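Troubleshooting entry. The earlier prediction with 2-acetamido-2-deoxy-beta-D-glucopyranose gave an output that would not parse, so I re-checked the input for stray whitespace and re-submitted. Clean input:
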Amino acid sequence: MKLDFLKQKFPQKHKHLIVKFLVAIFLTGVACRFLFFQSEEFLPVLESPFPEKTVVPEFTLPAQVPYNLDQISPKDFNSGEKCDTFTGEWIPDPSGPIYTNKTCKLIESPQNCMRNGRPDTGYLYWRWKPRGCELPRFDAERFLDMMRNKIWALIGDSIARNHVQSLLCMLSTVDRPVLIYHDEEYKSKRWLFPSYNFTISVIWSPFLVKAAIFEDFNGVSTSEVELHLDKLDDNWTDLYKNLDYMIISSGEWFLKSSIYYENDTILGCHYCPKRNLAELGFNFAYRKALQFVMNFIVTSNHKGLIFFRTSQPDHFENGEWFNGGTCERKAPVKEGEIQLKELNSILRDIELEEFAKAAVKASKNGVNLKLLDLTPLSLLRPDGHPGPYRQFHPFARGKNAKVQRDCLHWCLPGPIDSWNDVIMEMVVNGQENQPFR
Ligand SMILES: *[C@@H]1O[C@H](CO)[C@@H](O)[C@H](O)[C@H]1NC(C)=O
Ligand SMILES: *[C@@H]1O[C@H](CO)[C@@H](O)[C@H](O)[C@H]1NC(C)=O
Ligand SMILES: *[C@@H]1O[C@H](CO)[C@@H](O)[C@H](O)[C@H]1NC(C)=O
Ligand SMILES: *[C@@H]1O[C@H](CO)[C@@H](O)[C@H](O)[C@H]1NC(C)=O
C-alpha cells in the first residue's frame, strides 16, 4: 500500500504553534454574487466579485510545512494512474479551444473575456503536458458515450460553477444541454444531455458543512458566517447517494469572518473583533470541516467515483483584489516561477494532509476517492483570468478607468478547460482499473 509512508509524514506536533500573521485584509475571492436573467442563455450580471474584506489577524499555522510537496506525488494517492497527471508544464498548442463564445451559449458574462473585449488570444493556445506522458485532449463524444444514464455533480463555490460552464461548453460541441433545475438564486443548477440521458449538476456549497451566510443582494456580508463544523450541508448530501461521479471542492470561503459551532455551541470564531470570542483561525475550521466531510465520504459505502479537488490559487500581483492587484500576464509560467501565496498554501496543506488520511480509509472501505490536484497546473496560468474583462468593455470610457480585476476565476474558453482533459483521463483510467456500476 503506497500510502503507508504518508502516515508518518503528518505528525501532529506542529499544529499548536501560533504564528502571528499580519495580513490586514485578504481576498475572499470566491464570494461572487450573480443575478441572472431567466433567458435561455442565462446572461448574468455581476456585482462586485470580491465583495467582502476578511481580516486575518492571527491563526495557527504549522511551524513549517510538514512535508516536502515534491516528495508526495498525487500519484501516491491515485494508485493505478499511468502517470502523474498533475506535474508537468504548459506547452504551445496551435489547435486551441474546442468551443468559442459563439458556439457555447452558457458562458456567464464575467468569464466571457473575448466578448468583453479582452484583446489578446495567446492564452488560448496551450495544453497541459504531464511529465512523462501525454494527456489526450478531452473527447466530448467519447465522454458522453461513457456517461450514458449517469449523474455527475460539481460541488463547491464559484470555481465549481466556472468549471461546470467549461465542461458544459466542451460537451455542447456534441449535444445541447437542457437546464432542468435551478434554485431560486441560480446557484445550484442541473442540466440534462437528452440524447445521452446524462445529468450534470453544479451544487452550491462553498463550505461543504452547514452554514448560515448573511450577505445582502450585492454579496456584502452583513454579519459573520455561522459555520457548523459537525453538520454537513444538505445541499450536497441530499443528492450524494444518487451521484455516479462528483467533484468536491472548497477552500477560500473559509477565510471569511465566521463564528464556529459544534453541537450547536459556539467554539470560537475567525476574525470577529466585535465579539468576545476566541480567535481559532480559519485553518482550525477548514481542517475540522474537511475531516468531517472526509469521514462522511469514506464511511458512506458510495459506489461511484469521488474526486476531491484541491483549492484554487489566485494570481493578483502588485496588490490584492481590493487595492489594485492585477493579472496582466499573457502566457503561462514555468514551474517554480510563481509561488503559492501563503494563505493558499495553508489551505492546500490541510487539503493534502486530510486527503491522505481519508484515502487510507477509503481504500480500506472500498470507496473510490481520488485526489484531483489541480492547484499546481492552475498556478502556472496567471494569464488565464478575466482581469478587467470580467466587465463588458471595461475601458470603453478611457484607458485609465478604474476597473475591478478578477484574477481568480477563469476566462472561457481558457485554462480551466484543461481540467477536463485531466478528469477525462482519470475517468477513463478509473474505468479500466476498477469498473463500477
Ligand atoms: C467572441 O466574441 C466577440 C464579440 O462578440 C467576437 O468578436 C469574437 O469573434 C468571438 N470570438 C470567437 C472565437 O467566437
Ligand atoms: C436515465 O438515467 C437515470 C439515472 O441517471 C435512470 O434512473 C433512468 O432510468 C434513465 N432513463 C432511461 C430512459 O434510461
Ligand atoms: C445551499 O444552497 C442555497 C441555494 O442555492 C444557498 O442559499 C445556501 O447558502 C446553500 N447552503 C450553504 C450551507 O452554503
Ligand atoms: C451536545 O449538547 C447537548 C446539550 O446542549 C448535550 O446534552 C450533549 O451531551 C452534547 N453532545 C456532545 C457530543 O457534546
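This one parsed fine. Residues 4-433 form one domain.
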